[in-house]
């Protein structure tokens, strides 16, 4: 059996791994259109801040690893056309310019997404970067030590924008973060958190400008010098665009069914509208556990899970991909936060009647001083007020309490209630946590607030 896997990041890598585990005698062709396989953009901040020392280490796999396992890797070779009836793909070799056709039995697409390029005047100026992929990582690393760069403007206040702002603020530059939403990180956290994080950014020399977007890039001698929005003009020797992503699927139009937004339509088994063609990752939707409906949640975890299930189902397993809660985490200077499931401030968007309980407590017993590893913990639990089913959670602290969100994610997927959490058995040891785990604390408060 011959598999062709397109794309080498999270979804493509996991697809290859699953083929090796389930069908080790399969013929595997693995295609990557860039010059490096399996680069992980989600690990870029660690490289830019010097935690990971070499850019090539931010990767799942190497060509040598693939060759050792019998995988045929094709770097700088792009699949540009698919003939589903003939079970063939058209390949362009960007190194030689040659083209050829290859046959397949099963085709796994992990075509991913590309950064949005803002269609505004001045977008062709030099000094406008993205923060996705190995080539950009190398350019951004050089920028962090470039003495000519004193002002950096970040367009977009999602996870990538926050990471970029933190990198360049730590590098000693003045950063302006411009975002069109009302609240920083409002897609991930409720208002109790976003205000604190905005203050944290401002404290670290990041000028946060909300409810505006880039209307024009101003330049001199062909290089960007400022960003103009509806509300002001901000100096910028470097601009980083992080205003969302778009699926890399134009080349699939007319081959597989797409949504109006260009996402590949897949069923519960990751199969597209064509037999023997599967698609995973940022170019698809997933089933959202709190609602049971599909949603676009572009996370590495979803891509990896999809890669595994696509291969299992291509081999006849007929296993539905589990619904997900949309769990994610990030640090913003001294704070670390994580969230999953439904947020109170966005529940209406999903047509959900939700209620939440918010608590502020400590990471360890109060007799443990802050300097010995104690800090405030802010936890918010969201649930259905009628059934008390757990729908979501958010946590933030200057200590690492983010792992508790994995418990909430499991609670959502298993349809647990607030009562289930209120007296759930968690360990206690003063060197690690508090007598009642923060999950117990917030759930017990929720029961009291609802007279349960």
Automatic annotation (TrEMBL):
UniProt entry keywords in alphabetical sequence: FAD, Flavoprotein, Oxidation, Oxidoreductase, Redox-active center
User: Which prosthetic group or cofactor does it need?
Assistant: FAD
Transmembrane parts of this sequence: none
> Pyridine nucleotide-disulphide oxidoreductase dimerisation domain: which residues?
331-433
- What positions does the domain FAD/NAD(P)-binding occupy? 2-307
Q: Which GO molecular function entries does the Swiss-Prot or TrEMBL record give? A: oxidoreductase activity
By its UniProt entry, which Pfam families does this protein fall under? Pyr_redox_2, Pyr_redox_dim
Report what the protein is called.
FAD-dependent oxidoreductase
């Amino acid at each position: 059996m011959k598999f062709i896997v397109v794309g080498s990041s999270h979804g493509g890598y996991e697809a290859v791994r699953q083929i090796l585990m389930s069908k080790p005698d399969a013929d595997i062709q693995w295609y990557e259109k860039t010059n490096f396989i399996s680069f992980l953009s989600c690990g870029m901040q660690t490289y830019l801040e010097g935690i990971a020392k070499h850019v090539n280490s931010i990767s799942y796999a190497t060509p040598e690893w693939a060759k050792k396992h019998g995988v045929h890797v094709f770097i700088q070779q792009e699949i540009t056309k698919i003939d589903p009836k003939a079970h063939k793909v058209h390949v362009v070799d960007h190194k030689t310019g040659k083209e050829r056709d290859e046959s397949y039995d099963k085709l796994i697409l992990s075509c991913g997404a590309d950064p949005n390029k803002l269609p505004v005047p001045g977008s062709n100026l030099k000094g406008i970067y993205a923060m996705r992929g190995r080539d950009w990582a190398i350019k951004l690393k050089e920028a962090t030590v470039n003495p000519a760069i004193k002002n950096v403007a970040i367009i977009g206040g999602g996870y990538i924008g926050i990471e970029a702002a933190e990198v360049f603020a730590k590098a000693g530059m003045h950063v302006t973060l411009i975002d069109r939403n009302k609240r920083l990180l409002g897609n991930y956290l409720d208002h109790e958190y976003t205000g604190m994080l905005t203050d944290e950014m401002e404290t670290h020399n990041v000028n946060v400008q909300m409810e505006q977007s880039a209307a024009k890039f101003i330049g001199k001698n062909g290089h960007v010098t400022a960003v103009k929005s509806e509300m002001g003009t901000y100096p910028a020797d470097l601009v980083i665009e992080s205003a969302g992503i778009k699926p890399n699927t134009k080349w699939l139009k007319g081959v597989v069914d797409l949504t109006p937004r260009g996402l590949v339509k897949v069923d519960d088994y990751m199969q597209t509208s064509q037999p023997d063609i599967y698609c995973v990752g940022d170019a698809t939707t997933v089933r959202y556990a709190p609602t049971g409906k599909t949603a676009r949640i572009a996370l590495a975890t979803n891509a990896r899970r999809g890669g595994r299930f696509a291969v299992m189902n291509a081999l006849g397993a007929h296993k539905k991909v589990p619904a997900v809660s949309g769990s994610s985490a990030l640090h913003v200077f001294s704070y670390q936060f994580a969230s999953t499931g439904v947020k109170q401030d966005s529940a209406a968007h999903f047509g959900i009647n939700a209620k939440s309980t918010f608590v502020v407590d400590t990471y360890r017993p109060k007799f443990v001083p802050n300097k010995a590893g104690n800090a405030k913990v802010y936890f918010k639990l969201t649930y259905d007020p009628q059934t008390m089913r757990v729908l979501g959670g958010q946590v933030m602290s200057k200590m690492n309490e983010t792992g508790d969100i994995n418990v909430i994610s499991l609670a959502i997927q298993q349809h647990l209630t607030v009562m289930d959490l209120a007296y759930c058995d968690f360990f206690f040891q003063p060197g690690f946590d508090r007598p009642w785990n923060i999950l117990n604390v917030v759930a017990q408060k929720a029961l009291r607030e609802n007279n349960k």
